[in-house]
Amino acid sequence: MNTAVLTRFIDTRDWTRTDRRLIGSATIAQPAAARERQALLSIRDLHVSFDTGSHLVPVLHGVDLEIRRGETLGVVGESGCGKSVTWMAVMRLLGERARIRGRIQLGADDIATFSERQMTQVRGKRIAMIFQDPSSSLNPVHTVGRQLMEAVRLHRGLRGEAARVEALRLLDRVQLPSAAQRMRAWPHELSGGMNQRVMIAMALAGEPDLLVADEPTTALDVTIQAQILDLLRELQRDTGMGLALISHDLGVIAQVCDRVMVMYAGRVVETATADALFAHPLHPYTRGLLAALPELDGPVRRLQAIPGTVPSPMAMPAGCAFAPRCGQRENDCEVRRPGLRVNALDHSVACWRLTK
Ligand SMILES: Nc1ncnc2c1ncn2[C@@H]1O[C@H](COP(=O)(O)OP(=O)(O)OP(=O)(O)O)[C@@H](O)[C@H]1O
Ligand code: SF4
Ligand SMILES: [Mg+2]
C-alpha cells in the first residue's frame, strides 16, 4: 500500500453516490464465509467483561474477525477501543477477573474451550505476541542469549549447543548487528530497536502460525520504526505466518497490511482490504481517523481531529457508540445499535445510514 493514497482529502461531511453503492442493497455474507473457511484464526462473537467484584464491566461486545495464513491484518482504533483486549483474550492473558465468551477457532481447535494447560501449548508455539515496550518484556537480569536459548528450549526442546546455534540463527534472522557478541549482552546494553528485534526473535523461536504485534513500533523513532515494520513484513512473507498488527496509527497500517479492521468502543465498525479502506473509507469514524492523519507528501492542511473521546465502558451510549461524536448522526442512531453488514466486495461497515 502506497501512503500517497492517504493524501486524498477525506470528505467527513457526507457519503458520495459511489460510497453508497459500495454498501447499497447488495448486502451479502458469502465473502466473509469464504474467508472463514480459509482462515488460520477465526473469531466469532467474542465478548469480554471484567468482574469488579460487585458487577461486570463489558469491554468487548461481539467481535468477529478472520486472519489467513500469510495475511497481515491491521487492527486500528483510538486508545481504549479494545484492540489489546481482543488479542489478550485470544492468548488468555487477561487474568482471573476477565470473563470471555465466544468462539476462537485456531485451525481445527476452538481454543476458547481449552484448559490453561492446553493454552500453554498455544502461546508461543501456535500464536506468539510482541508488545510495545520490549524492555518490560525482557528479563533485565539475564543476557539476551540466555533468554533466547530458554525460549528455544521451551518451544522446540533444543538444549546446550543446539539451542545456542538456533538462538544465534534467530538473532541473524532478525538482522541484529554483531549477533554473536549480542548473545552476551544484557537488555539495558541494547537500544530500543535492538531489543525489539530480540523480542521478535523470541517470538519466532516457537515457529508460530500467527504473530500478534501490539504497537510494536510506537516506542521507537521513525527510522527504526520503518526498519522494524520492513522486518516484520519480510519475516511474514518468508515464513508464511499470519500477522496481526495492532496500531493506533493508520500510517503504519497503510505501510504493511493486506486487510484492516477498525475498532471503536469494543466493536468492529469497518473492515476491508487496505486498498478499499484507504480509497473508500465508509464509516464516519474511519473517515475521522484518516482526516486526522498528517500528510507526508501532500499539501499542508489543518488536521481535523475527531471531536470528543471514546466512551467509557461504564457509560456506553444506548444506540451507535459513535453517535455523540458523529457529524452524520440522525435520530435513529442514538437509539438503535448498528450491526456489521458485508457488501459484495467484502467491505463491512456498521452504520445505519449506509445500510438502511
Ligand atoms: N484488566 C482490565 N480490567 C478492567 N478493564 C480493562 C482491563 N484491561 C483493559 N480494560 C478496559 O478495556 C477497554 C479496552 O482496552 P484496550 O487495552 O483493549 O484498549 P486499546 O484499544 O488496546 O488501547 P491503547 O491504544 O491505549 O492500547 C478499555 O476501556 C480499558 O480500560
Ligand atoms: S450509525 Fe449514525 S451515529 Fe453511528 S456512525 Fe452511522 S451515522 Fe454516525
Ligand atoms: Mg492496547
Descriptive overview:
This protein is an alpha/beta fold and 356 residues long. Helices cover 33% and strands 21% of the residues. It contains 14 helices and twelve strands. The protein has helices at residues 17-23, 30-37, 83-90, 116-119, 134-137, 144-156, 160-173, 179-182, 192-204, 222-239, 250-256, 274-279, 284-291, 352-355, and strands at 39-51, 56-68, 72-76, 98-106, 109-110, 127-130, 210-214, 242-247, 259-264, 267-273, 341-342, 348-349. The strands form two sheets. It has an eight-stranded mixed beta sheet with strand order 6-7-8-3-9-10-12-11, with helices on both faces. Strand 9 and strand 10 (267-273) form a beta hairpin. Helix 6 packs parallel to helix 9. The two termini are 31 Å apart. Residues 2-11 have low confidence and may be disordered. Residues 83-84, 214 line the site of magnesium ion.
Sum this structure up briefly:
This protein has 356 residues and is α/β, with parallel strands linked by helices. 33% of the residues lie in helices and 21% in strands.
